[in-house]
Amino acid sequence: MRRRFSDILSIFISLYFAAATVDGAVSKKIKEPRTGIVFDSKVQNLSLEKLGVRTKGPLKVYAVGQYGKSSSHNNKPNNAFVLKMYMSISREKMSSALMDALKPRCKTFGCDANQDTEFQDMVLQALPSEGAKSGTVLTFTTFGNKVALTVNGKAAGKVSGKAIAKAFAAIYTDSKAVCTMNPIVEKDESESFDRDKNVPGIVTAILAFLFALYTTYNPYRNKSGNLVISELNIYPIKSCAEQSVDSAVVTPRGFKGDRIAMVVDSDKVCCTTRDTDKVKLFHVQPQINFPDCSTMTLSYKGEQSPLTVKLESIDTTLVACSHNEAPGKLMLSDLGNTAASWIANATGIQGSRLVSTDNEEYDRICLINPGQGDPIPTSNSKAPVSLSDEAPFLLTNQASLDDLNERLLKRGHLPIDMRRFRPNLVVDAFQPWIEDTWKKIRIGGKVEFFVWQRCGRCIMTTIDRDSLTRAPKGEPLSTLNTFREGAKGQRNFGMHLIPDVATLRDDDEANWTVHVGDTIQVLEYDMDRMKEWESKFEN
Q1: pTM value?
Q2: Dihedral pair phi/psi, residue 366, rounded to 5°
Q3: Domains and CATH numbers, the chain
Q4: Which keywords belong to this entry (predicted)?
C-alpha cells in the first residue's frame, strides 16, 4: 500500500514523544527561591534556563520558568514559558495583564491586526470561571510559528503567526521584560541528564518506532492513533451541570447516575435550558455520592445552602411526565416538596418538581432520529435509555473541538469549551472528526459500544455556561452549518453510543467500569462514513 508523507511523519512524531517521555521521567525539580514554587528541569524536551517572579507592588503574582534548547537564542521564538500562580486572580485580570504586556510588543514585531485581542480572548476562555487560582499552571509555547496555551496540562488554544510568537517571548526576554529572569545555575554537572547516553531512553524510542510502524501499515488504525479517555462526565439531572468523575459504571441506559432525574414544570412537562426562562438550570450542580448512589447533593453557584436529596424512593408517588424527546408519558417518582422548593428558589421556575427514574415502571427505549436516519444498532432494536435526549452515551473528540475553535476564530468569534456539548466521554484522537468513522469500539479492554449516529446540535450549544448569555450570532451553530451540516439539516458534533449488552453480563460491576486514561480500541469502521471523512477532512 502506498504510504503518504503524513504517515511517515507520524512515525517520527511518535519517536519524538517517546524521547520526550523518557526525558521527562528523569527530570529534576528546581525550586524558585522567592516563592518556593517547584519547576521541572525539562518540559517538552526543553531545558529550564531561567526563573523569575511577576510582582504587582509587594505582591508576588506568579513564578515563571523559561525553557529552551541549549543552542537557542532569545531572538528566536522557540521557547516555552511556564507560569505557576502564587496568588489567585480573576481570569479577566490575568488575561488583561498578559494582553497589556503583549500589545506594545505586537507593534514592535508587526503582528497581524487584532492578534493581541485574539490572544486575550484565548486566555480568557482557557481559564475557568473562578479564575487563575493559586497553583494553576499556564504553559505557553512559542515554537512552530504560533503561541499555544495549555492550562493544567490541557490544551486550551493557540494564536498563529511568527510575529506574535516573538512578541510573547519578548514579554520575558527583552530589555523591558515584566520581571527579572535569572539564569539557572547547575550545582552538580554530574547529575545532568544526557539523553544520548540514556540506554533505556533509546530502547523506549525504538519500541515507539516499531509501534508507529505497525500503526502506519494498518490501513485504519493509523487514522485514529493512540486513543485514551481524557474526560468522563455524568449529568445527574437533565439540563443541569455536569459531575466530572475519574471513573464511571456502564449500564444499558447510560452511566450509573446519568440523567436519572429531571425538573418538570407545573404542567409536568420537562424543563430544559432551550427555554430562556429556564437557563438557570445550567447552574444547578448535582453531586451523587458514588459508589452508593443513595443521595444527591444540590448546590447553586454558592448562592443558597446545598440540599441533600435521598434517591431511594421514600414517597412512592408516581407522576406522568412529558419528555421533550419521548412520545407519550413517562412514569417518574416525585422526590418530594423540599427538593421542589429548593429547585424553584434556585431557578425561578415556580411550581417545578424534581422527578426521577427510580421506579419499576420507567421503561424508555432509543428511537430512530428522523434527522439522522441511522437504525438502532443492537440486535433487537430495543436499547434502553435514561432521561437523555436520544442515546445512553455521547462521545466527543477534543481534536474536533480544536478544529471548530480555529474556524470560529477565523470568522471573528470567541472559542468555546467542551461544556457546550455535554459529553459523557471525551477523547483526543489527534485527527478532528475521525470519530465519525467508528462503528464499534472497546474501552479499557472490557466494555464494547456501538457507535450509532452523529449528534445533531441544538440552541443549547449557543449558551455560555458561566454567564448564561446566548451568542448573538448563533455560534457555534452558524459555523457548524458551514461544514458539519447533514443531509437533513442536522448540525453535527459528537457521536451517540449504545453499549453492547453482551459485554455487560459479568456480575462484577468493576468489569463494567471505565476510567479516565483507559484506552479505546476501534473494532470496526463504518465504511460510508469513512469515505465521507476522507473526502472532507483527511487532508
Answers
A1: 0.60
A2: -65, 145
A3: 27-192 (3.50.70.10), 224-232+368-536 (2.40.33), 260-356 (no CATH)
A4: Signal
